[in-house]
Amino acid sequence: MEPVLGLPALVVMAFLGLNSVKVTSGGQSRLVERLGKYDRQLQPGLSFVLPVVEKVVSHESLKERVLDIPPQQCITRDNVSIEVDAVVYWQLLEHARAYYAVDNLQAAMVNLVLTQIRAEMGKLDLDQTFTTRQEVNEALLRELDQATDPWGVKVTRVEMRDIKPSAGVQQAMEQQMTAEREKRAAILRSEGVKESELNAARGRAQALILQAEAEARQQTLQAEARASAATRLAEAIEANPATAEALRLLLASEWMAMGEQLAQAKGGSVLMVDPQSPASLLAALKGLQQGQT
Q1: pLDDT (tens digit, 9 = 90+) per residue, 71-101?
Q2: 92 has which bridge partners?
Q3: How many domains does the chain have?
């Protein structure tokens, strides 16, 4: 008669059978050791491991993950203390290499990132840390990806989230920005005053030009009016002999008064007239009188 297994033995066998069945999800990885030595990596799906002989020693995700780097005190090239924090995106490409190459992968990566951040900040002045952030991110990405390659890790992106100078430096920066704003405001005010004065000067110059043009136009019109009046007078004298005789009598009295003015004129004066033209004589006398006044 064959021996019948007892209940404890059945329980143990059932437990071992359940533990030998492993279901690996997509994007996951399991490492199996056989008798303490690495044997294989379980692929997504249903897998079996030998009880007692084989053991799953590591279960990791192969998806891209985020590593939050805590704030770190750094010293810039110009000896300014700043606080920097960052975030690193990474992916596990070779599970076995990462498991056997480094004891605590995430802790090792955090320390590596902090070291690289301090090194990069030490190469820059304070102003450069704000203006060259993208270049620093790219440099950190290259250096971290190269450093983590022996661990089977791929660093896909590095982002520096915040850069905070010390309280004293922040106060000095605020004072500097205030001074810069006041300086720009003063420059704008002075430029406004200058532009206003230039506009006023241009306005005065334009007014003088317009006034001079008006005066010149007025003189031209007066000269044209005098010439026209003289022409009409000459025509009237030539058309009416009686008018010419009356004009000669008038000019006789004008000659007597003009004679006295000619005698008193400085340096002498010359009167060029046509004795046969009363109109020409009258115009000459009028011009001489205006020149003497």
Answers
A1: 888 888 888 888 888 999 999 998 888 888 8
A2: 153
A3: 4
> Rounded to the nearest 5°, which phi and psi values hold at 282?
-65, -40
Q: Cα-Cα-Cα-Cα dihedral of 176, 181, 184, 188, to 10°?
A: -160
Q: What does pTM read for this prediction?
A: 0.53
CATH number at residue 102: 3.30.479.30
pLDDT digits (tens, 9 = 90+) for 226-283: 777 767 766 766 676 666 666 666 666 666 666 666 566 555 555 555 555 555 555 6
Q: Are residues 224 and 262 in the same domain?
A: no
Mapped onto helix, strand or coil, the DSSP state of residue 164 is strand
**Cα–Cα dist 290/286, whole Å:** 6
What would the two tokens of residue 271 be?
A: 């009167």
Task: State which residues form the domain around 271.
Answer: 240-293
* Rounded-to-integer distance, Cα 23 and Cα 11, Å: 22
Residue among 86, 91, 82, 83 nearest 68 (CA): 86
Eight-state DSSP code of residue 63: S
Sequence-ordered list of residues with C-beta below 8 angstroms from that of 166, at least 6 positions apart, any chain: 80, 81, 82, 83
Query: Rounded to whole angstroms, how far apart are CA atoms 152 and 97?
Result: 6
Name the region of 76 (left: φ>0; alpha: ψ -120 to 50; beta: rest): beta
CA neighbor of 130 nearest in space, from 181, 187, 180, 177: 177
C-alpha 3/C-alpha 39 separation (Å) is 37
Residue 176 lies in a domain: no
Same domain, 55 and 81: no
User: How far, in Å, CA of 214 to CA of 129, rounded?
Assistant: 67
